[in-house]
């Protein structure tokens, strides 16, 4: 067995064993190989598993490599392996796509793009583990939402352009992008808040207190 074939086998085994996926840089660190060498061997493995003789493929999702069942084989695999699927409505998917493409962003941002209330959708998406939130330093300290690693694993999306191509954002979204760029500059500046204002929340964000 050649040295290159042995290295390729090691990479294959590492990807197979990493239940949550593994980054190419991590493979390089474990094997002692240079990153460019790892990438070349990965290209060979991806081509090999891309052939019709294999029922699985190697795919990078959110920067992590994993083995995935090919769509053409899924109907057979589903008879012995039941993976928990997320039941998601059209309105939830719309909100999720906006957060994925434009996040991190506030609930008001999502509602401005959608043109309707999104509190319920964001609540359910949070319960599903598809989005997370954190307090921002924007005026009123609203929550900022972004997608989680579970989102990337579930939808097997590595390049968000796959989502963008299926969406048509309105002019309001373009205006929002400009205003948010201006507001984001404040993220790097600590706000001086009077003690009398501590603990206060923005009225517009107060309903979000129920989100997990």
UniProtKB/TrEMBL annotation:
Region Disordered: start-end pairs: 171-212
Signal peptide interval: none
Keyword Protein biosynthesis part of the UniProt annotation: no
Gene Ontology annotations of biological process type: cell division; chromosome separation
Highest taxon in the source lineage: Bacteria
SUPFAM superfamilies: Winged helix' DNA-binding domain (SSF46785)
PANTHER family: SEGREGATION AND CONDENSATION PROTEIN B (PTHR34298:SF2)
Listed name of the protein: Segregation and condensation protein B
Native source organism of the sequence: Mesotoga prima MesG1.Ag.4.2
Lineage: Bacteria, Thermotogati, Thermotogota, Thermotogae, Kosmotogales
């Amino acid at each position: 067995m050649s040295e290159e074939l042995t290295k390729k086998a090691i990479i294959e085994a590492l990807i197979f064993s990493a239940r949550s996926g593994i980054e190419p840089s991590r493979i390089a660190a474990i094997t002692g190989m240079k990153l460019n060498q790892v990438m070349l061997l990965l290209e060979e493995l991806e081509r090999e598993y891309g052939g019709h003789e294999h029922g699985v493929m190697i795919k990078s999702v959110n920067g992590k490599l994993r083995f995935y069942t090919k769509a053409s084989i899924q109907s057979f695999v589903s008879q012995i392996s039941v993976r928990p699927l997320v039941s998601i409505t059209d309105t939830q998917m719309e909100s999720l796509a906006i957060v994925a493409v434009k996040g991190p962003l506030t609930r008001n941002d999502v509602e401005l793009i959608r043109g309707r209330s999104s509190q319920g959708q964001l609540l359910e998406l949070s319960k599903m583990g598809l989005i997370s939130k954190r307090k921002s330093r924007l005026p009123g300290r609203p929550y900022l939402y972004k997608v989680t690693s579970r989102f990337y694993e579930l939808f097997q999306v590595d390049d968000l352009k796959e989502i963008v191509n299926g969406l048509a954002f309105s002019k309001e979204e373009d205006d929002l992008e400009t205003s948010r760029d201006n507001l984001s500059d404040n993220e790097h500046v600590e706000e001086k808040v009077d003690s009398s204002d501590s603990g206060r929340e923005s009225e517009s964000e107060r309903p979000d207190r129920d989100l997990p």
